[in-house]
Amino acid sequence: MTALQPAAENPMARPIARIVLEHAFQISMSWRWAFDGDHMCALIWPAIDLANIKYVFSQPDLLERYLEGGFPDHQRQPISMRALGATHGVDNETLRRVIKRLVARGLCEQLPGGVIVRSASYQNEHVAAASQRTLDILSEMVGELDRWINPVQADRLAPLVRRPWERAPTISRQPFVLFLADFLFLFMIENISLLDNNVARADTFLCIFTANNRPLLEDDDLSARYGRTDQPPPEILRRPISVRAVARRIDRSLETTRRHANRLLVDGLVARRGDGLVVDDSILSRPELLGMMHGIEASLRQMTCRIERLAAFRGRDAGAP
């Protein structure tokens, strides 16, 4: 596969960000609902699972075993809270509280060497539903990228466009879920510093941003006009969203949402338009937000490469060219 253009030089970073953030927000909400609104559990659980089996992807014999029938718990490598915190930027006290909640739900287990997610966790009805929803949203996101990103860029996303997770047996879909969850997790922790490391504030900002850009995803003509170019759409096309609507969408109290929205206004990350809020183009031109959008494109490249390797292995194993 031809490598994607380096993020810092890629003029498609903005339209890619519009599409990816819309679907990343949907995935984030799906996992929050699976964990009864507990955002940190929704982020930490797949991070533990991926850490337990990450070494498998560099060992073809173990990967084959994993794809054929799941990976046995005794071969999962526990990860310590110290390592998990250092890798993902979460303090130890927060991790202890989150892991305690996950253990109480029966979704992870503490061992002398660290923490593991048992393979049976995927049989939990809420986890199973969130996993399937993740793959459905991934398919929708790829469809948008393939349809509206310029043809050269779309061709470079070929491993995603082929959607190998849709043809995989149920047990073999787990790595795809983990890759996407890891992409979302890394995006959150790498960019939450822009929002005072506050998850609720990040949710509020992301909800406003995606609501503003819904017209670009819903209208074929607008998507064709602004999806294939880095030219920003006119401000009038951004759909404002009220604080009350944001609160409903992210399932937080109106008081909490209003407090975070006001902080975003003070920090200049959102602006008022009528009775609603928008992230306008002048805000998106700030260096830190341009860096975030390029970071999304870079993370997408990483996820594409992971899926390409996994899909290629499955193809060789099945005798495909």
Written description of the protein model:
- The chain is mainly α and 321 residues long.
- It contains 16 helices and 4 strands.
- It has helices at residues 13-34, 39-53, 60-69, 81-88, 92-104, 125-148, 151-156, 158-161, 174-191, 199-212, 214-218, 220-227, 243-250, 254-266, 281-284, 287-317, and strands spanning 109-111, 114-116, 271-273, 276-278.
- The strands form 2 sheets. The chain has a two-stranded antiparallel sheet.
- A hairpin with a 2-residue loop joins strand 1 (109-111) and strand 2.
- The radius of gyration is 20 Å and the shape is globular.
- Mean pLDDT is 79; it is low at 1-9 and 316-321.
Task: Give a nutshell description of this structure.
The protein is 63% helix and 4% strand.
Major β-sheet profile: 2 strands, antiparallel
Strand residue content: under 5%
Quaternary status: single chain
Helical element count?
16
Structural shape: globular
Helix- and strand-based class? Answer: mainly alpha
Q: How would you write the strand order of the largest sheet?
A: 1-2
Instruction: Extract low-pLDDT stretches.
Output: 1-9, 316-321
Number of strands: 4
Mean pLDDT: 79
The whole-angstrom Rg is 20 Å
